[in-house]
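Posting for a labmate who doesn't have an account.
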Amino acid sequence: MTETVKGPASYFPSIEKKYGRPIAEWQDLIRTSPLTKHMELVSWLKTEHALGHGHANALVAHTLAEGAGK
């Protein structure tokens, strides 16, 4: 049985299709950014990489949540 992806990760297929980069690449950009606050990172992705708000928010939320578990 396949499990339905929920939360921020549910945006990942459309992010990869629309922007042509794998999710791992976006996450590396977020992790190496000098910015650390959620909305700062979202704004940066929107202005510097032309991501839509929902896509940027999903990437940042998922990436920061992964880091919090470490």
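Reply:
Got it, the structure tokens are right above this. The chain has a mean pLDDT of 92.
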